[in-house]
């Protein structure tokens, strides 16, 4: 089962993905692999380092190439061995961040349309003012964080959510307002329960 965690910069994806991995290991007794995009491969690390200078279409293509390798070399082998995979960011991130970088939504989709559909894409939302307060205390913002605003990102994420719905993606939108990370993870687990029940026992 591939679960992806999406949402604007600073909404809590990394925090929630880590906690969710722990809870799922405990609840299912099955192996859980936590991963991220850009990946921790040489290409992914290069993209993180070079995000300030690679932009627009070139970045969209490079991110899609990193994702393709991620799926083929890391995600599918883990799924094939019965492991639950959680990815911190996936396609919805591209449908937002590359748009912030002035690439058209349909063009971004054309670079991503053949990737593996996740079992569920979890979109985290919060009050843009709360997110802005979190970003304000960061020592350094990435180029794309500095270019967009939480309110604009949320607007683009909503559009990407609707777009992916039309592509028949299984998605859920989780409202994180006034919820601590534990409560957010409980809300995600509630939506995963029927899917987990259909998995063979460990
Ligand atoms: N539900 C929550 N309530 C309060 N604080 C939270 C919550 N979730 C995350 N945080 C805090 O918000 C900050 C940003 O969280 P995190 O790094 O997980 O966000 P992110 O979405 O992964 O950000 P980015 O995309 O920029 O990497 C952290 O300091 C984290 O402890
Ligand atoms: C998956 C994905 C990532 N990016 C860029 C945006 C940021 O510079 C980094 C992600 O860093 P974070 O610590 O997770 O905030 O990668 C992108 O432009 N498009 C994508 O699809």
Automatic annotation (TrEMBL):
Pfam families: Thymidylate_kin (PF02223). SUPFAM superfamilies: P-loop containing nucleoside triphosphate hydrolases (SSF52540). It catalyses: dTMP + ATP = dTDP + ADP. GO terms for cellular component: cytoplasm. It is an enzyme of class 2 (transferase). Its EC number is 2.7.4.9. CDD domains: TMPK. Residues 5-143 form the Thymidylate kinase-like domain. GO terms for molecular function: ATP binding; dTMP kinase activity. Keywords: ATP-binding, Kinase, Nucleotide biosynthesis, Nucleotide-binding, Transferase. One of its GO terms (biological process) is dTDP biosynthetic process. InterPro entries: P-loop_NTPase, Thymidylate_kin-like_dom, Thymidylate_kinase. Belongs to the thymidylate kinase family. HAMAP family: Thymidylate_kinase. Phosphorylation of dTMP to form dTDP in both de novo and salvage pathways of dTTP synthesis. This is Thymidylate kinase. It comes from Micromonospora pallida.
């Amino acid at each position: 089962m591939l679960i992806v965690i999406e949402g604007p910069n600073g909404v809590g994806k990394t925090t929630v993905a880590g906690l969710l991995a722990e809870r799922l290991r405990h609840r299912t007794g099955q192996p859980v692999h936590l991963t991220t995009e850009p990946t921790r491969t040489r290409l992914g690390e290069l993209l993180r380092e070079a995000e300030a200078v690679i932009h627009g279409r070139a970045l969209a293509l490079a991110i899609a190439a990193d994702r393709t390798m991620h799926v083929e070399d890391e995600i599918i082998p883990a799924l094939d061995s019965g492991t639950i995979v959680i990815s911190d960011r996936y396609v919805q991130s591209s449908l937002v961040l590359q748009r912030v970088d002035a690439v058209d939504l349909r063009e971004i989709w054309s670079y991503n349309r053949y990737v593996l559909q996740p079992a569920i894409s979890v979109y985290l939302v919060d009050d843009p003012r709360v997110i802005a307060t979190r970003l304000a205390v960061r020592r350094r913002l990435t180029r794309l964080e500095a270019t967009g605003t939480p309110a604009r990102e949320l607007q683009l994420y909503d559009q990407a959510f609707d777009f992916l719905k039309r592509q028949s993606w299984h998605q859920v939108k989780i409202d994180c307002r006034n919820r601590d990370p534990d409560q957010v993870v409980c809300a995600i687990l509630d939506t995963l329960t029927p899917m987990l029940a259909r998995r063979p026992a460990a």
